[in-house]
Amino acid sequence: MCGIVGYIGDKSPVEVIMAGLHRLEYRGYDSAGVAVVGAGKLDCVKSLGKLKELDRKLEEHPLHGNLGIGHTRWATHGAPSEVNSHPHFDKAKEIAVVHNGIIENYQELRAALQAEGVQFRSQTDTETIAHLVRKYYQGDLFAAVKRALQDVEGAYAIGVICKDEPEVLVAARHGSPLIVGLGENEAFIASDVPAIMKYTRKVLYIDNGQVCRITRDGYKIEDIHGNPVQLEVKTVDWDDAAAEKEGYPHFMLKEIHQQANVIRNTLRGRVHEGSDEVNLPDMNISVEELKGCEKIVIVACGTAWHAGMVGKYLIEKFAKVPVELDLASEYRYRDPIVPPHTIMIPVSQSGETADTLEAIRIAKTRGAKVASIVNVVGSSVARESHGVIYQHAGPEIGVASTKAYTSQCTAFALFTIWLAEVRGVMGKAQAREMIAHLREIPEKIQWILDNQEDIKRCAADPKYRDAQSALYLGRGYNFPSALEGALKLKEISYIHAEGYAAGEMKHGPIALVTNELPVVCVAVNGDTYDKMVSNIQEIRARSGIVLSVATVGNEAIRPHSEDVFYVPECFEPFSPIVVAVPLQLFAYYVAANRGCDVDQPRNLAKSVTVE
Ligand code: G6P
Predict the structure, then answer these.
(1) Which among 58, 273, 306, 561 is most buried, taking Cβ atoms within 10 Å?
(2) 144 CB near ligand 1 (under 6 Å)
(3) 310, 313, 317, 517: which is closest to 408 by C-alpha?
């Protein structure tokens, strides 16, 4: 999980690294540290807790030099503590390592090193790397890192520095993300682009098994066996301001407000006004493969899985292909059947989620074609898939996913239209109509963003704000909306919340209904509206507090509801994209009113790169 940053150049390494780590704090924030080589010594400052603690300690104990590495941690091996925080060192404290990932054979390595007399300071898997590099060090850090990594199994992105080589930064990756940023007479390493956007747009995406020797004026990349590797320098076009809050109190609120534009970006270049065609060339699926496809498997985790459910409903309804939806963590361990002509669609904002990656590998070895929906360009999911639909949502910093979800749903809508047309189950007129509906979504989202008063008022109302738990109900296309609405509330406000298919209410959750239970009912106009109203009445009859999400103009729902959040009239199959917004805003304001750390909720991390 963790974020790493490294720097070599004339700026203050601490300044560059701390600015970068602040941008990566979404990756982990239980402890942090930085090490700098300067004036013939390697010095380090670490602290438990968030980065501001480290900032404070660095003021008391400044570090000077031209080379440094830093780390913000999300514990996997060993509790959050100063001693377990990175960087980790060899015995003489001359070699320092920061690491993101998990070394799977660290216990064997540790035992072997201990047998050779090495004493460990921490409980981490990372410390083994520092001792291994020392073991193989003979005056060439690059060579020692390559040799050490030959002994290592597992996932890593590492940055390594050595007291005796003040002009060399070594970085390597296998399974965890790592980029190298190239500047004028300076260079950077980082887990993610926002960490270095302030300084450079020229980036190398280091691939699995590659080790990079970086100096201020150049770099050399080899695999761990010393074979040379060439990588193309890419130019990142993300806007630097995108990684800042732009005046919003939290990234999550900013990202909620970006959604009208995000949907426009997801659609950009893929559909045109008045057109009946969708253009998804990067999916890398041929017309023959689409026509011959007999089954689609969607795998994902968390919010992305909810988007996958929206995708399942759309694809089955309009493209008439059977869809299996699975949590990636279940799929990878259940010996799934992958019949011939299966297309897998993994969904992942980060593109680094360990379970999703493993599900892809399994499906590929069993013959599936894999085309993923991913936000982060060049991420592992994107690279391991045969094709991709990039979401173009921009960096999502808030741990709770918002704009990534709505853009994933939009990507599914695009794919559905394309698939249905190619398979001849959707005519041009219907495709044109569906595309027109999609193109209207941004303005509907904007309407909600411009009319938030009721949402804010309710979120401040003690009957919602101070609730012990809440129930979210929806049917059909909006069953995933209920799941996603509940997830948003629980993960950032810590109010226990459950999403349910409204038809299941009588099979259990109705037992929970009391005059203290808020029940959020998604009851927008559409095929299942009447059924939702019946459920709402059943809840009211038991004194539950009904908070309805309904279509503008529906006054009839008011008498059955304590409160109503209105959304504009919407083509029902695409309504989850619109309905998500008031549910996100409600969760946000409830959490903010409860004083919660909205962007970095307790125990959660943005990118789950371990099982
Ligand atoms: C974490 C995040 C969620 C996200 C899930 C899947 O739990 O907090 O917001 O939905 O991982 O992540 P992915 O990057 O694969 O979409």
Answers:
(1) 306
(2) no
(3) 310
Nearest CA to ligand 1 atom 2: 606
Ordered structural domains, the chain, with CATH:
3-243 (3.60.20.10), 251-449 (3.40.50.10490), 453-593 (3.40.50.10490)
Strands 469-474 and 518-523: parallel
The string of pLDDT tens digits covering residues 593-603 is 999 999 989 98
Q: Is 551 in the pocket of ligand 1 (CB under 6 A)?
A: no
* Ligand 1 binding pocket includes 348 (Cβ within 6 Å): yes
Direct distance between the N- and C-terminal alpha carbons of the chain, in angstroms, rounded to an integer:
10
DSSP β-ladder status, 545-551 and 496-501: unpaired
pLDDT of residue 469: 97
- What digits encode the pLDDT tens for the residues 316-336? 999 999 999 999 999 999 999
Torsions phi, psi for 300 (to 5 deg): -175, 175
Ligand 1 close to Cβ of residue 302 (< 6 A): yes
CA 428 – CA 426 distance, rounded (Å) = 7
Distance between Cα 314 and ligand 1 center (Å): 22
Tell me the C-alpha distance between 368 and 295, whole Å. 10
Mutate to test the pocket of ligand 1, among 26, 74, 301, 327 (most ligand atoms within 8 A of CB): 301
For 21-59, the pLDDT digits (tens) are: 999 887 777 899 999 999 899 999 999 998 999 999 999
Q: Rounded to two decimals, what is the model's pTM?
A: 0.81
- DSSP H helices in 94-227: 106-115, 127-136, 141-150
Distance 316 CA to ligand 1 centre (A): 25
Q: What is the separation of C-alpha 523 from the centre of its chain, rounded to a whole number of angstroms?
A: 29
